[in-house]
TrEMBL record:
UniProt-recorded name of the protein: Acyl-CoA dehydrogenase family protein
EC numbers for this chain: 1.-.-.-
Residue ranges constituting the Acyl-CoA oxidase/dehydrogenase middle domain according to the UniProt record: 136-227
Pfam families in UniProt: Acyl-CoA_dh_1, Acyl-CoA_dh_M, Acyl-CoA_dh_N
Keywords of this entry: FAD, Flavoprotein, Oxidoreductase
Domain Acyl-CoA dehydrogenase/oxidase C-terminal span(s) in chain numbering: 240-389
Domain annotation Acyl-CoA dehydrogenase/oxidase N-terminal: ranges: 21-132
Length: 396
């Protein structure tokens, strides 16, 4: 693929059309909507603000576009979906995560369609696809992040159902969600975990304000359960399937996080190029300085390499392979290099890049987080090393 910051996708007319319409919506209608509401990345979001975006994006064919046609989507390949995720990440929009359904929408719920029963699809998942309901995913606890088996949230049998007690943190989309896909340890069993669809307005369930991450986004909640009852119709899959459901698509999810981050890095690079062209120093544009030219060349090369790796691994996924090691490598390389690009953007912007409210300053904070989120860089290195060093069949 030839290098460009705005790919045309001429070899894929369907994707070219989708990207073109998506760019038009992001730069036009959605930009105007955000401006009318006075949104910033740190504005606490409400359902009243974002539900119209879900429904409008559903009308335009973006919300749930990756799903099979029976659910109103276009059954996109992973590579096609990645291209759209990169575009929303590169758009500079506050509500970028609402357009395709990353924040509590179809991209969050779609992973469990094949596990859910018909009743669960009708009650929980299809309303999400229609933009009527939202979901969050609750796995992480204060002392159970990378080591999810250290979780203390427990499900105790009660008749045909269970009583759940525990405290989940960093439930993304929790502030606007109707239900949670929640994983709990089965009481009295050392290594058995199950997944449940927990209605967040159930007795014994409290949605509390979560920690605000360094990006300033108010999209996290704590989910606190105190003897919260869930019935048999709310068990997702079978008893003991919790970690398989919670972590089973980890390779796919790891790869599909990368395009959004690449989009953010692309945005930082575009802003930097524009700033260098227009900023006047010593009687000429900043871009005339060789030191700036070299910095931008390094940033662009890092972006190209990270993007090429990611799309190569996604094409393997589309072919039916499971590029587990490559997914570790992509997450590591994208996270580290996207942050270097953001750091370079701030450096070139100088004082203008240090001001709160400047877009490159926000991108710097957001991209720093990705070196930890969805598995830290060190966790990715562990996975790569195990794949290379451990005899086949002995990896956990």
């Amino acid at each position: 693929m030839s290098f460009t910051l705005a790919p045309a996708y001429d070899d894929n007319p369907r994707l070219a059309d989708l990207v073109g319409r998506l760019r038009e919506y992001l730069a036009g209608e959605l930009a105007d909507y955000e401006a009318a509401l006075g949104l910033t990345p740190e504005t606490p979001l409400t359902r009243a603000m974002i539900e119209p975006v879900w429904k409008r994006c559903r009308e335009l064919g973006f919300y749930g576009v990756h799903l099979p046609s029976e659910y109103g989507g276009l059954d996109l390949s992973y590579t096609e979906l990645a291209a759209l995720k990169e575009e929303v990440g590169a758009s500079g929009r506050i509500l970028y995560h609402c357009v395709l359904g990353d924040l509590g929408g179809p991209l969050r719920a779609g992973a469990i369609f094949t596990t859910a029963t018909e009743d669960q699809r009708e009650r929980y998942l299809l309303p999400v696809v229609r933009g009527e309901r939202a979901c969050c995913f609750s796995l992480t606890e204060t002392n159970a992040g990378s080591d999810v088996r250290a979780m203390h949230t427990t499900a105790t049998p009660d008749g045909d159902g269970w009583r759940i007690t525990g405290h989940k943190v960093f439930s993304s989309a929790g502030p606007i969600a109707d239900f949670s896909v929640l994983v709990a340890r089965m009481a009295g069993e050392e290594e058995s975990y199950s997944a449940f669809l927990v209605d967040l307005d159930s007795p014994g369930c409290t949605v509390a304000d979560g920690e605000v991450p360094m990006s300033g986004q108010h999209i996290e909640s704590d989910i606190i359960l105190d003897d919260c009852y869930v019935g048999p119709r709310q068990l997702l899959g079978r008893v003991g399937d919790g970690l398989r459901i919670g972590l089973g698509r980890v390779t796919t999810n790891r790869l599909l996080h990368c395009p959004t981050v690449l989009g953010h890095a692309r945005r930082a690079l575009e802003l930097t190029i524009e700033f260098a062209r227009t900023r006047q120093v010593f009687g000429g544009p900043l871009a005339a300085l060789q030191s700036i030219q070299h910095k931008i060349a390094d940033m662009a090369t890092s972006y190209y390499a990270a993007r090429a790796m990611t799309y190569d691994a996604l094409s393997e996924l589309d072919s039916g392979s499971k590029p587990s090691t490559e997914a570790f490598m992509c997450k590591l390389f994208v996270a580290e290099n996207a942050f270097r690009i953001a750091d370079g953007a701030v450096q070139i912007h100088g004082k203008a890049g240090l001001v709160r409210g400047a877009e490159v300053e926000w991108l710097f904070r957001r991209l720093r987080m990705f070196r930890v989120l969805t598995g830290s860089s060190e966790i990715q290195k562990n996975g790569i090393a195990k794949a290379l060093l451990l005899p086949s069949g002995t990896q956990r």
